[in-house]
Design goal:
The structure is a single chain. The protein is an alpha+beta fold. The chain has 14 helices and 27 strands. The strands form 7 sheets. Strands 1, 2, 3, 4, 5, 6 and 7 form a 7-stranded antiparallel sheet that branches. α4 runs antiparallel to α6 and α4 packs antiparallel against α12. Bound molecules: zinc ion (ZN). Zinc ion binds next to loops.
Length: 446
């Protein structure tokens, strides 16, 4: 039975009220229900606690109030905006409404969702393109970096906590009610498959380090749509009882691609996604997963921190490319030697711009970002360079300066300036100084 009726006004702690728009909850779960409400003139969601444990915990409520007061660490959190007064022995909080076309991470993992229509239908859930997937991964990492920077941890990261726009890769972090100052915990441990071993074993309470473990699991599942610890060894036990879960995820977890222990490798016919995809990804990304799931299992400080994921993902975003034939691939390891990047589908090759360690294939519409061309910048969204086609000579590609400062281009002893909004021809061997401390070189072909 619904806790409210349409038109009910629920008083808020900051004054004013949230007005219930519809009788039936938008959703319900073990902890509570979510209602559509009007708050400050626009539609919002109200999470209302029905679980006895939640609704009677003074500390839990006080923590949400504190989070309302502190504000969201980034706009990507469905952060508590206001807390209600107590009504009938319970309370709730107001948050933004999720975009109606967003999908849940759990449905992405399953590759489809079931509609609530009669009869129910299966709707495929997948990203519009690989760049959307990378965008989602970058936003997840950036959100957790922002949260950890303000000294808080999420404590319960799992596949229910992320809502995604599959056409853009934009994400929203939901279920923010367990977020608390690091090392403060309100009894939540996490969800099976996402918890760090020390949480499964109950030797520690969730913190920034266990968040980082869960973050690595989320990223692994985002890229490979399989579980990092569910391999041959786990398949042998016919079901994951609490005893088995403790054993394979707490006491003796073995990463499915452990470099020296092959006892828990993925199984053909069951883990086909990861078997197909693992080999296609570059080593620098696989190294981070391996560190998180091998050394980082017990030594929590070895788990990759957000900035490490960020630089790997930004590099991956640049090193994945779309050929004019429609073929998609990652830059191969020999690109630096050969000085070019070749499409595995049609064989066409492209010049390569080296930006630090990153090899950017100069295919039409390829871009670089401020964090790659400006010293000290961490802006991973502002485009500062774009590969464009010459308006007069079809097929002739150039680099356009989309930044707000001049570039200096050096080639065979000559030097010229390229002003903002102007372009320069791509010539192997050319070096561009984007600012005094950052430059890039177009490789010579060998
Ligand atoms: Zn091609």
């Amino acid at each position: 039975m619904s806790s409210f009726s349409s038109g009910d006004r629920i008083p808020l702690m900051t004054g004013g009220y949230a007005k219930v728009v519809r009788d039936a909850p938008l959703g319900s779960g073990g902890q509570g229900e979510v209602y559509l409400v009007e708050y400050k003139g626009t539609q919002h969601a109200l999470k209302w606690y029905t679980s006895l444990k939640m609704r009677t915990s003074v500390e839990f409520k006080e923590n949400i109030r504190k989070n309302v007061y502190d504000g969201a660490p980034s706009e990507r959190f469905a952060w508590p905006l206001d807390v209600t007064e107590d009504v009938n022995g319970s309370f709730g909080y107001v948050m933004r409404l999720l975009p109606k076309d967003n999908e849940e991470f759990s449905d992405f993992l399953r590759t489809y969702r079931i509609t609530k229509t009669e009869p129910p239908r299966r709707v495929p859930v997948k990203f519009a393109s690989f760049p959307c997937l990378i965008r989602a991964a970058i936003q997840v990492v950036d959100s957790f970096a922002a949260l950890h920077r303000v000294g808080k941890s999420y404590q319960d990261l799992n596949d229910g906590g992320i809502s995604m726009d599959m056409s853009t890769g934009d994400i929203i972090i939901c279920d923010c009610d367990n977020i608390a100052p690091d090392r403060t915990n309100f009894g939540i441990a996490g969800k099976q498959g996402y918890m760090a071993p020390e949480i499964v074993l109950g030797t520690k309470t969730p913190d920034v380090y266990s968040d980082r473990f869960s973050l690595a699991v989320i990223l692994f599942k985002l890229f490979f749509r399989d579980d990092p610890f569910w391999g041959a060894k786990v398949c042998k036990c016919c079901n994951l009882t609490d005893y088995n879960y403790r054993k394979y995820y707490g006491e003796e977890p073995v990463f499915i691609y452990h470099p020296t222990d092959s006892s828990n490798r993925p199984v053909e016919g069951i883990h086909d996604n990861v078997i197909r995809m693992w080999g296609r990804y570059p080593q620098y990304l696989k190294d981070l997963f391996t560190r998180a799931f091998v050394d980082g299992l017990k030594e929590t400080s070895k788990r990759p921190i957000e900035i490490e994921w960020m630089s790997a993902l930004i590099r991956l975003r640049s090193e994945s490319f779309m050929c004019s034939c429609g073929g998609f691939s990652f830059v191969s390891d020999d690109a630096e030697k050969s000085g070019e990047c070749t499409c595995p589908k049609c064989g066409r090759s492209y010049p390569v711009l080296m930006l630090g360690k990153t090899r950017l294939p100069l295919a039409k519409d390829a871009v670089a970002y401020s964090c790659q061309t400006r010293f000290g910048s961490d802006d991973f969204e502002k485009i500062t360079l774009k590969v464009v086609e010459n308006r007069l000579k079809q097929g002739l590609m150039g680099l356009k300066n989309l930044d707000d400062c001049d570039w200096e281009v050096f080639l065979d002893g000559t030097r010229k300036s390229v002003q903002p909004d102007k372009g320069t021809e791509i010539v192997p061997g050319m070096r561009i100084e984007f600012d005094r401390k950052t430059s890039g070189t177009v490789l010579r072909r060998n």
